[in-house]
């Protein structure tokens, strides 16, 4: 007899993107890491931490970090919670705000849009709570009746990643404000801003006191903008009532002494990290333009990745739908490469990109923006494939 | 209207021991940290970690650490799970194995003994699951009918800290084997070995394949024996079925790159850490003997702390119960200091020990074993109080 609960027995764990452990040189554009190294003040803070700070328990609530983050984001420290990566914030929010399913009712739970970050429904299943899923429009914008559907299902937390993953599309602030207002008193709006450092807009106005909202929670992470995916440090910014509830339920010492000083240094010196954001944005625009020129469809992205559709058949109907179709890099005789075969071809050439075996995504690839040299290698490999 | 669930609204969060952030010199004997610094190979592993390892996501399942731990403990890597401190292992076990309360039934949940680590019932409350509590004998040994009571309540996980906290008492392996056998097929036995490095016995035989048990899970931590409370790294050793269930439900990247290399170095060089264990044990015996000589009652401890009862009134009945009572350091005219007043007195002298405002513990103090100099200071302060 298994000892675990039924929902855990039934659970399919989240599959992280491949992390090659081999020493072979791999161009890794599959998990949206920043291609530039962490800034030097972060590494210095880590190396300078005295052994004594590891011997003792860390600050349970990461108070020093919270003060710095509060100052940076113009909120108060009780509006900040530090977490063991953004993942912990997501799990905490779901376990604190979502009612588990009962034999009587499957109301409540999380609301998501489809497609979105595939971890959300996994966390809901682990908490044994419902998932209400609403499809996005074809251009990955929100459907007009989203709020209505979520309210009808009685969701406890609506999860929106903004900029959107895997497309990079940005939901306008005004729209999010309207959603939060409509959900107020009934549900929490969790806006996952993992990729916000590469976008032209953030949602801070919704959590600042002047917003009048008490149900908005923003997720931030050090993994992307600050090149610290290996550190596991994220944080939430939200109204104090939401933060206090999660603060009670988090593990007593959920962030460690090293990540606390590293994350504090990252925010203190964010103007240095911003150099990498500018370079990534520049390369994103370049890749968008280079791939578009090669007849790929590139969804407009405000993030550090692009979602792309390989060129259609040179003379087929799909080609004419997509553009002029008069010229293409594809050879006429070979079978047209699909997203999956291109993924495999690139992998064989030591370039990892992300292929999702999910409804609506099987014709697409998500490519993380790399350094200029890494991006050159992607384009060269594709040109070789299509020549 | 609050957004959080009712059980979270009702939750009283765990109160960690005080962590003075001031720069003033404090002798900190209240949270059972190891008084000696982390070993040098650990600090070197942290400082040597390349920036590139922070830029990328860490090994999701801490594979290198698991292999090392498996080798050290003579189990297979699929019997090890790495966690963000021992706290995460406790929370994971409860959320994976314990059925939440329903309107129909409050069966299931965790079983604990009283007194014990006060975090256990807090984690149960956060998961909205029941707590079955059975009082220990006066000498902190297990009552004979423990298994029977736990089975009658239908607990899903029985939590025993061994050596026991806050007393330091050790449950014999044979007894734990019997409990596990009786619970097999019905409940998980989680043995919290946070303090095992200071004891004469561990419970590894119960998780090695020859035991024939499939329901035992050991908790280990780097916080105590390895002087790494600030690192937040723990791990579980158990039968592969239990580990696999928790592995599915943990956060996808629950341990970071720094703590993975540090914990691996700690285990690789554990013979160096063992020097601190020997010194702590020696000082524990010394403090036991010094305080006993001063008419304190000291419970026999196999841990890095001692639970003590201050001397009774010089001529009262409690004195005669406790020993010869012919001499005492207490002045006859002053009010006899209670555990609480001694705690406050020591705190005023910059010595922190732990006072628990709990039934059965209000007459006692828990004192972490410090360096010889720190222990000298405790004895000197107590002698001054009682002179």
Keyphrases for this structure?
alpha/beta, Aspartate Aminotransferase, domain 2, 387 residues, 12 strands, seven-stranded mixed β-sheet, homodimer, globular, 2 domains, 38% helix, 13% strand
How would you portray this structure in words?
Two copies of one chain form a homodimer. Chain A contains 14 helices and twelve strands. By secondary structure, chain A is of the alpha/beta class. Chain A has two domains: 6-35 and 272-386, Aspartate Aminotransferase, domain 1 (Alpha-Beta Complex); 40-270, Aspartate Aminotransferase, domain 2 (3-Layer(aba) Sandwich), CATH 3.40.640. The first copy, chain A, has a seven-stranded mixed beta sheet, with helices on both faces. In chain A, helix 2 packs antiparallel against helix 10 and helix 4 (63-73) packs parallel to helix 10. The radius of gyration of chain A is 22 Å and the shape is globular. The termini of chain A are far apart. Chains A and B meet through helix 2, helix 3, helix 5, helix 9 and helix 10 of A and helix 2, helix 3, helix 5, helix 9 and helix 10 of B.
């Amino acid at each position: 007899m298994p000892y675990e609960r039924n929902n855990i027995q039934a659970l399919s764990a989240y599959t992280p993107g491949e992390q090659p452990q081999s020493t072979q040189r791999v161009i890794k554009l599959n998990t949206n890491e920043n291609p530039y190294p962490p800034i030097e003040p972060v590494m210095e803070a880590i190396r300078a931490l005295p052994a004594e700070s590891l011997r003792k328990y860390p600050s349970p609530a990461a108070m020093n970090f919270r003060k710095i983050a509060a100052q940076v984001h113009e909120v108060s420290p009780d509006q900040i919670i530090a977490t063991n990566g953004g993942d912990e914030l997501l799990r905490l929010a779901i376990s604190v705000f979502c009612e588990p399913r009962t034999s009587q009712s499957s109301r409540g739970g999380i609301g998501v849009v489809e497609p979105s970050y595939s971890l959300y429904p996994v966390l809901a299943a682990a908490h044994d709570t419902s998932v209400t899923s609403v499809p996005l429009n074809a251009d990955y914008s929100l459907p007009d009746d989203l709020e209505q559907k979520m309210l009808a299902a009685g969701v406890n937390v609506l999860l929106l990643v903004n900029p959107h993953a895997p497309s990079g599309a940005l939901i306008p602030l005004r729209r999010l404000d309207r959603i939060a207002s409509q959900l107020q008193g009934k549900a929490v709006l969790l806006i996952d801003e993992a990729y916000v450092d590469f976008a032209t807009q953030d949602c801070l106005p919704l959590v600042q006191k002047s917003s009048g909202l008490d149900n908005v929670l923003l997720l931030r992470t050090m993994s992307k903008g600050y090149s610290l995916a290996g550190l596991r440090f994220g944080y939430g910014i939200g109204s104090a009532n939401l933060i206090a509830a999660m603060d009670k339920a988090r593990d007593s010492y959920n962030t460690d002494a090293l990540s606390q000083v590293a994350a504090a240094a990252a925010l203190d010196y964010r103007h240095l990290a911003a150099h990498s954001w500018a370079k990534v944005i520049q390369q994103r625009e370049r890749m968008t333009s280079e791939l578009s020129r090669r007849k790929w469809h590139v969804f407009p992205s405000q993030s550090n990745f692009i979602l792309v559709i390989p060129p259609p058949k040179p003379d087929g109907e799909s080609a004419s739908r997509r553009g002029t179709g008069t010229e293409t890099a594809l050879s006429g005789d070979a079978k047209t490469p699909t997203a999956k075969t291109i993924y495999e071809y690139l992998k064989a050439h030591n370039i990892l990109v992300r292929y999702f075996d999910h409804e609506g995504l099987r014709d697409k690839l998500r490519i993380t923006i790399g350094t200029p040299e890494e991006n050159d290698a992607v384009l060269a490999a594709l040109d070789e494939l299509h020549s």
